[in-house]
């Protein structure tokens, strides 16, 4: 540990202390000596393939995460600053957030009130709609990837994101996702889509108000069996969020709410609860570069 902390990455980033450990790596607090600011750096771990470190797969995952998040600019999506490869390890440099995940928050304080969850959902959906408009599908939205800072809700970990034009991620049974937060059509090997991301998003809101995911079981196999054969039980503590969550969790992706429609409903719920929010606006029309010079 002392040797790692003493290292200077890329001639500018000094590791200070580990912040969070996950299945895919360690997130470090670090200092950027060039810009004189603290940052977060994710050290991407290589998994095992035939009892050997699968460095190629780890490299692909790190590149995908950095490229997916790096093409997005939104306050509800983690900002990626840099990507490094040193001594066979991959490091993703990101903005530093003092935050708890939604998973940690519910663990510490219990199920959240419906109006808190509505505010979280509104912010998160804004970032998710931005990602979809830029051709990025997250594919692994779960409470451990949602960061709460107090005034921001931030979606992180784009490690298995799919980008428009990447045919290799159009379909197939997901191997790295959290089953309880994965849309049923994806568990059947169906294509990735914005609707599948919205199902996962709604499952996180279900978790926030109920304190548990829509499907539970002793292991992943039991959870997958439930998700593929039964509808999730209706949330009992969701209040005005109940019809939104239930519609987004519909097993048929064609019958789910769209992101735009859900955003309108969140705006109305928050307004009714007396929580001030900027009014929903349609995306700005992109004009050609010479629109004002003709």
TrEMBL record:
The keyword RNA-binding does not apply. InterPro entries: Kinase-like_dom_sf (IPR011009), Prot_kinase_dom (IPR000719). SUPFAM superfamilies: Protein kinase-like (PK-like). The keyword Disulfide bond does not apply. GO terms for molecular function: ATP binding; protein serine/threonine kinase activity. Pfam families: Pkinase (PF00069). Its EC number is 2.7.11.1. Residues 13-275 form the Protein kinase domain. Keywords: ATP-binding, Kinase, Nucleotide-binding, Serine/threonine-protein kinase, Transferase. PANTHER family: MITOGEN-ACTIVATED PROTEIN KINASE KINASE KINASE 20-RELATED, SERINE_THREONINE-PROTEIN KINASE NEKL-3. This is non-specific serine/threonine protein kinase. It comes from Thermostaphylospora chromogena. The lineage of its organism: Bacteria, Bacillati, Actinomycetota, Actinomycetes, Streptosporangiales.
């Amino acid at each position: 540990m002392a040797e790692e902390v003493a290292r200077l990455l890329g001639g500018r980033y000094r590791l200070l202390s580990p912040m969070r450990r996950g299945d895919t790596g360690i997130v470090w607090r670090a200092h950027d000596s060039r810009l004189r600011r603290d940052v977060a750096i994710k050290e991407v771990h290589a998994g095992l393939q035939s009892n050997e470190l699968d460095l190629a797969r780890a490299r692909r995952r790190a590149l995908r995460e950095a490229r997916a998040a790096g093409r997005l600019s939104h306050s509800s999506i983690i900002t990626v600053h840099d990507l490094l490869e040193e001594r066979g390890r991959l490091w993703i440099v990101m903005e530093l957030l003092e935050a708890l995940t939604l998973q940690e928050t519910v663990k510490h304080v219990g199920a959240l009130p419906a109006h808190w969850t509505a505010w979280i959902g509104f912010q998160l959906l804004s970032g998710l709609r931005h990602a979809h408009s830029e051709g990025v599908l997250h594919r692994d939205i779960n409470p451990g990837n949602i960061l709460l800072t107090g005034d921001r809700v931030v979606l992180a970990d784009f490690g298995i994101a799919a980008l428009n034009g990447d045919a290799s991620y159009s379909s197939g049974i997901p191997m790295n996702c959290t089953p309880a937060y994965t849309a049923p059509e994806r568990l059947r090997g169906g294509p990735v889509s914005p609707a599948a991301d919205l199902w996962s998003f709604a499952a996180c809101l279900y978790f926030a108000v109920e304190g548990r995911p829509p499907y539970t079981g002793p292991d992943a196999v039991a959870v997958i069996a439930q998700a593929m054969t039964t509808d999730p039980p209706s949330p009992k503590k969701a209040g005005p969020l109940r019809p939104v969550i239930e519609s987004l969790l519909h097993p048929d992706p064609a019958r789910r709410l769209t992101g735009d429609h859900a955003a309108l409903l969140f705006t109305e719920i928050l307004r009714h609860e007396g929580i001030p929010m900027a009014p929903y606006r349609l995306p700005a029309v992109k004009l050609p570069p010479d629109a004002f010079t003709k």
